[in-house]
Design brief:
Length: 315
């Protein structure tokens, strides 16, 4: 199963028939041919918790593509491909049962599996089109995020609007811009990609805590786990006032803390929901002299998103 350009899902692998072919009156209904695919990546990080990467050969047509599984893998700390089952280095090239000219491109998904899957998740991290046997992989491709993060930016304030205590204003963080009238959104981000969601994080003591998940820069986020009883602003953020995790005391003073925004796998593919995924989009260190309700900038990390290349050759 591979997502089409409309964002829907196309059941065009026809289960094992299309994947492996079948004989019927001398005919073969599955893909024909054979290709050797070499993969190389930059910026992918090791996945944990049973989550792995899977590469797919994209075929069919641009409007109705389908995918053929190529290889399930993880990466080690140096970026080398690793076999999740054998914990050994994968060198490739990897086979795909298609002629090279029939491969439209390559996609890389996230999968909760230790074995090669016939049907994909809807959480793709990289994709690229094949041009004369070469593929440049990035997050912008339609099979992956299907949007650009060029020009993203962010601002935040320290404040605790969910209670009435004026003495703890350095104990909450909100992604809003108090430099505009009226107060505006602090984040300049596109709507979260399909299969992904944004999440804010801040270091509190020796822990990293979520400020909440959100699909876009306006409107409240999905949780108010640590906030007070008063409704917060219509922007993502969190007050750290109640129910501190073990080892912490609230309210903290967040001056000097690390603050960042990630894009996270959605639903079942976020196997470690209490930890940040490695795809950071914006980050900063809260100034040591930060003042309440004063806007400070986040730094864009869009240039550090993963990329890759693939080459497709006949066997």
């Amino acid at each position: 199963m591979i997502r089409g350009t409309s964002g829907s899902f196309l059941l065009t692998l026809f289960s094992t028939i299309l994947l492996f072919g079948c004989g019927g009156d001398g005919g073969v209904t599955g893909p024909k041919g054979n290709s050797l695919i070499t993969l190389s990546f930059s910026g992918l990080e090791p996945l944990t918790g049973g989550l792995h990467y899977q590469a797919w050969a994209l075929a069919g047509t641009a409007s109705e593509p389908w995918g053929l599984p190529v290889v399930l893998f993880n990466v080690d700390e140096s970026g080398q491909l690793v076999d999740p089952a054998a914990d050994s280095i994968l060198t490739g090239p990897f086979q795909a049962g298609l002629d090279p000219q029939d491969i439209l491109g390559i996609g890389v998904s996230l999968e909760v599996s230790d074995t090669l899957l016939s049907y994909s998740s809807f959480t793709f991290i990289l994709g690229g089109d094949a041009v004369q046997g070469s593929v440049n992989l990035d997050t912008e491709h339609w099979i992956a995020f299907d949007r650009s993060f060029t020009g993203i930016s962010g601002r935040f304030v320290l404040a605790t609007p969910t209670d009435e205590d004026p003495e703890n204003e350095l104990g909450g963080v909100w992604f809003m811009d108090t430099g505009s009238t009226p107060v505006g959104a602090g984040l300049s981000l596109p709507v979260a990609p399909e299969g992904w969601i944004y999440e804010g994080w801040v270091s509190v003591g020796d822990q990293v805590l979520s400020t909440g998940r959100f699909n876009g820069p306006t409107g409240p986020d999905s949780t108010s786990t640590f906030s007070g009883s008063i409704a917060g602003p219509s922007f993502p953020g969190e007050d750290f006032l109640t129910d501190p995790p073990g080892g912490l005391s609230f309210p903290p003073e967040l001056v000097g803390s690390s603050l960042f925004v990630t894009v996270e796998p959605w639903m079942s593919w976020d196997v470690e929901a209490d930890l940040p995924f490695f795809l950071r989009l914006l980050d900063t260190q809260v100034p040591a002299d930060a003042l309440p309700m004063t806007s400070y900038d986040l730094v864009s990390l869009e240039g550090q998103l993963p990329t890759g290349t693939a080459t497709i050759q006949g066997s």
